[in-house]
Amino acid sequence: MAASMCDVFSFCVGVAGGARGSVEVRFVSSAKGKGLFATQLIRKGETIFIERPLVASQFLWNALYRYRACDHCLRALEKAEENAQRLTGKPGQVLPHPELCSVRKDLHQNCPRCQVTYCSAECRLAAAEQYHQILCPGPSQDDPRHPLNKLQEAWRSVHYPPETASIMLMARMVATVKQAKDKDHWVRLFSHFCSKTANEEEEIVHKLLGDKFKWFTPDGFRSLFALVGTNGQGIGTSSLSQWVHACDALELKPQEREQLDTFIDQLYKDIEAATGEFLNCEGSGLFVLQSCCNHSCVPNAETSFPENNFLLHVTALEDIEPGEEICISYLDCCQRERSRHSRHKILRENYLFVCSCPKCLAEADDPNVTSEEEEEEDEEEGEPEDAELGDEMTDV
């Protein structure tokens, strides 16, 4: 049974103007499924809704490489200065205005049995009530022979960075249902997501079900695997980016502003030299309302995580009229600038559909240029130094 709209909105923790009055979910077509539509005028820059996920999990390599995040909400646990020291590889790195760091270490708590860390008592209790009682390894947290650790190691052995999913998201889904008193409630919520393993009209096989994963043979797990692959929303948190945003908001004299901006620019360069593109605590989650937002290569809304945790904000990129569909992009900025052929290739492999947005329709007669040819072009032309790094640093 599909999740009711009451189920959907009960997980939307805050909505500008009120969720029930500003957006609604409608059936679009058999190919696209559901869509999210505005029921009143939404102005450019307005927060359309804020949503917490049904379940979320940090990526496994990300956690292994000491990107410390709350085990429940993915809030970054390092102080901004500690974060800068690790990312630059400079133990003596000092940040100005340390008072702008939002991390509260005095609130952090550990699970008393397995010692995983949470940002607060609220997150520790929320995890325990939803799934952690089933998954807690207790004193075997660091024992490589524990079944959960063996599962995670098997996953890491075939999923190298950059990561797009985690086996622990599926484990938490299963544990949530198993631990719940009202199991039907959670089954209804999870059934809200599309669970087909392939698009029957296009006969596209999901790349996550390739040769490496033939041992996932039960149909139920295959569906679960595809559900996460096609509906999982990436989550990025960073105490350092929070500090940068706070610095941007400071009222400073022109000379002080120039000095601070120069310092931050150099910090970006140092991080790029030491760490590359892996700046944030990263994971993924399943969001009921966000999953209703269809893709467009020219989106009128975007997602972000400005609260340094798993709370997803969807913001209007332009005025959205009543009755207009709210669309986000499943592609990043660089991917959206690629050819129609390359965009379609990424979307087919990852999300099992062929895009027919206005941009794709306008480029229907363009020549088919492969991703490899575009990548060679990109390498020859190059990109502005630090541009992409700066965006990723501040836009989580």
From TrEMBL:
<keyword id="KW-0808">Transferase</keyword>
<comment type="subunit">
    <text>Interacts with the N-CoR complex. Interacts with EHMT2 and CBX5.</text>
</comment>
<feature type="region of interest" description="Disordered">
    <location>
        <begin position="362"/>
        <end position="396"/>
    </location>
</feature>
<dbReference type="InterPro" id="IPR044422">
    <property type="entry name" value="SMYD5_SET"/>
</dbReference>
<protein>
    <recommendedName>
        <fullName>Protein-lysine N-trimethyltransferase SMYD5</fullName>
        <ecNumber>2.1.1.359</ecNumber>
        <ecNumber>2.1.1.372</ecNumber>
    </recommendedName>
</protein>
<dbReference type="GO" id="GO:0005737">
    <property type="term" value="C:cytoplasm"/>
</dbReference>
<keyword id="KW-0489">Methyltransferase</keyword>
<dbReference type="GO" id="GO:0141005">
    <property type="term" value="P:transposable element silencing by heterochromatin formation"/>
</dbReference>
<keyword id="KW-0479">Metal-binding</keyword>
<dbReference type="GO" id="GO:0140955">
    <property type="term" value="F:histone H3K36 trimethyltransferase activity"/>
</dbReference>
<feature type="compositionally biased region" description="Acidic residues">
    <location>
        <begin position="363"/>
        <end position="396"/>
    </location>
</feature>
<keyword id="KW-0949">S-adenosyl-L-methionine</keyword>
<dbReference type="GO" id="GO:0032259">
    <property type="term" value="P:methylation"/>
</dbReference>
<keyword id="KW-0863">Zinc-finger</keyword>
<dbReference type="Pfam" id="PF00856">
    <property type="entry name" value="SET"/>
</dbReference>
<dbReference type="InterPro" id="IPR046341">
    <property type="entry name" value="SET_dom_sf"/>
</dbReference>
<dbReference type="GO" id="GO:0140943">
    <property type="term" value="F:histone H4K20 trimethyltransferase activity"/>
</dbReference>
<keyword id="KW-0862">Zinc</keyword>
<dbReference type="GO" id="GO:0008270">
    <property type="term" value="F:zinc ion binding"/>
</dbReference>
<keyword id="KW-0963">Cytoplasm</keyword>
<dbReference type="InterPro" id="IPR001214">
    <property type="entry name" value="SET_dom"/>
</dbReference>
<feature type="domain" description="SET">
    <location>
        <begin position="21"/>
        <end position="331"/>
    </location>
</feature>
<dbReference type="GO" id="GO:2000736">
    <property type="term" value="P:regulation of stem cell differentiation"/>
</dbReference>
